[in-house]
Amino acid sequence: MTNPTLSALRWLALCLSFLVSIHAEERMDEMWGESTVKLRAADAEKGQLFDKGNYAMFIHWGLYSQLANKVDGKTYYGIGEWIMNPRMANIPPEQYKKLAGEFNPTRFDVKAIARLAKDAGMKYVIITSKHHDGFAMYDSAACDFNVVDATPWKMDPMKELAAACRELGLGFGFYYSHNQDWTFPGGGGGPKLDAEGKPASFDDYFLKKCLPQVEEITSQYGPIELVWFDTPGRMPKKYAEQLVAVVRKNQPKALVSGRVGHGLGDYQSLGDMEVPHRNIEGMWESVDTTNDSWAYAWYDECWKTPDEILRRLISCVARGGTYMLNIGPRGDGSVPERAARSLRESGAWIHRYPQVVYDTASSPWKHALPWGDVTVKGKRLFLSVFDWPASGKLYLPGLETRVVSAKLLDGKSASELTHERLHGWTVVELPARAPERLVSVIELALEAEPVVDTTFGLDPNGATTVLAEFAEVAGAKGSKKHWMEKFGEWKTAYHIHQWKPESSVTFEVEVLAAGDYMVDLNYAGEGRYVWSVGVVGGERIQNQQNSSAIYQDHPIGWLRFPQPGKHKVEVKCVDGNLDSASLRAIRFTPVF
Ligand code: H79
User: Fold this and answer.
1) Ligand 1 within 6 A of 231 CB?
2) Residue 530: other Cβ atoms inside 10 A
3) 177: CA distance to ligand 1 center in Å?
């Protein structure tokens, strides 16, 4: 179909342009919307399920689900809904459109999907009404490339799904790719010529398809919770404004995602698959998926376990946000059983501990703690313990408010725990065994609303990792970095780079006991580096270690903290290829 040399050259050019572009934040804005969306709180009319529910189901389902990442016998690894894109299987629009003729998803069961969302503890469901491929998964009068007009199935699944969600008290809403449309002339990334061979403009696409379709999805399915626009690209503001106006007119109570662009959304959506490390004010969400791809991919059995789902959900809620987790049904409509099992099992936990997840405030520590995370309701703290300490003691640094009682919850009852204060730390005595297989919960009742010193306390029980984003940086650069593990599978890290011999990176920590701590640095780079790590006013150690392009922990050595209390730890990169050194975290582990 294509000349191999040409396509190799094109790949190379695309890869290069991607490498060059991806670090620029403006490029990230094109994909994920402005990071400067005005963050608002929910009001009584709007955003209640989002703001208080904190957990939603995302569904990616379309023609691409049939291909499941395999075309002409060849598997393409990455996000399945991108399969027709030149960066994946490069299927020409006319050929892709023929897939509709085979779309007959007789195993799509709206009641089972709504029940799964409910059992999972989710509060609303957002499904792809049209992805970048341009195929409408609902009955669209604006464009006949849709599930009713173009398939042998001839059904509109959204009518029944909306009804099934409502029957169970779940909210319902649509994903809509507003800027990209790879099959409609004039759409972003779409054909440049119309059916008569005349040049098509973005206006052609916008007026004939996009605007009428947004009118349709906001008027045909009853009250909806949210319209999840994605990847604004360089769509000028005037278009985004018109789309938002349609949503406001038809669905005054619906939220608009930040990815509509130009700061016109109601809340901020973080980068795909990004769980943030520090608290974020206002309304925001993380979107994530149960495996690695959004749409169904035949090979992708890399499922998140119930434990991982709970960790990621609780981490988002503790940072102040909402978590939307995706499933990708197969082309026949069935939901992969492993995804369903993980969701049901984590959901059973949420139904035992609803007070931890729903309508809670973010952690007053403003970051995760080494053993877990904290959510708050007034004077009550919920400590979600991900890693149960073998020592029988849980250490909580920096809590300045008096603890009235500590209770270990077990889903139904609660047992009183002994607690004491030690050098400003709260120490809770625990039974040897965790009551829960997944996440055990301790409830602290406080005398008043919590006041916390947010300094990182080094956990006497084991390793404490402090990420680079919490360091004070002098003479180097700290910034967020996004990269793709597989195509479309995004990873995000904050790293410190552009090191100079005089650069100084300082972490503030609190120790409960004087003594030796093993120090590891997590970094990537090229060749060997010499790092120097010192307690300000105390011992300084120095060591050479190797590196690779992948972030890894590298042992530096034992470092002594001379007395309990607050200390500053300074890191310097003394020798090596400083231009490629990229520091992600420091880790301290008590030696005795
Ligand atoms: O629906 C899921 C993805 O299909 C969609 N968002 C989630 C929820 C999504 N669309 N685009 N992206 C995510 C970002 C993709 C960016 C890339 Fe590229 C496309 C990376 C490489 C090709 C644009 C062009 C950015 C760099 C080069």
Assistant:
1) yes
2) 14
3) 11
The CB of 30 under 6 Å from ligand 1? The reply is no
pLDDT in tens, 131-186: 999 999 999 999 999 999 999 999 999 999 999 999 999 999 999 999 999 999 99
Domain span including residue 24: 1-41
In a domain, 365, yes or no: no
**Residues 541-587: pLDDT tens digits?**
999 999 999 999 999 999 999 999 999 999 999 999 999 999 999 99
Protein residue whose Cα sits closest to atom 9 of ligand 1: 231
Does residue 223 lie within any of the structural domains? Answer: yes
CATH code for position 273: 3.20.20.80
Same domain as 435, residue 508: no
Q: How far is the CA of 326 from the centre of ligand 1 (A)?
A: 16
**Residue 77: other Cβ atoms inside 10 A:** 16
**414 and 395 within one domain:** yes
Q: Is 141 in the pocket of ligand 1 (CB under 6 A)?
A: no
Whose C-alpha lies nearest to ligand 1, atom 2? 294
Q: What sections of 53-124 are H helices per DSSP?
A: 64-67, 93-97, 110-119
* Among candidate residues 373, 356, 266, the one with its CA nearest the CA of residue 48: 266
Q: Kind and range of the H or E element at 587?
A: strand 582-590
- Say how many domains are in the chain: 4
Q: What pLDDT was estimated at residue 15?
A: 40
Q: Quick one: DSSP state of residue 138? A: S
Q: Is residue 422 part of a domain?
A: yes
Distance 492 CA to ligand 1 centre (A): 14
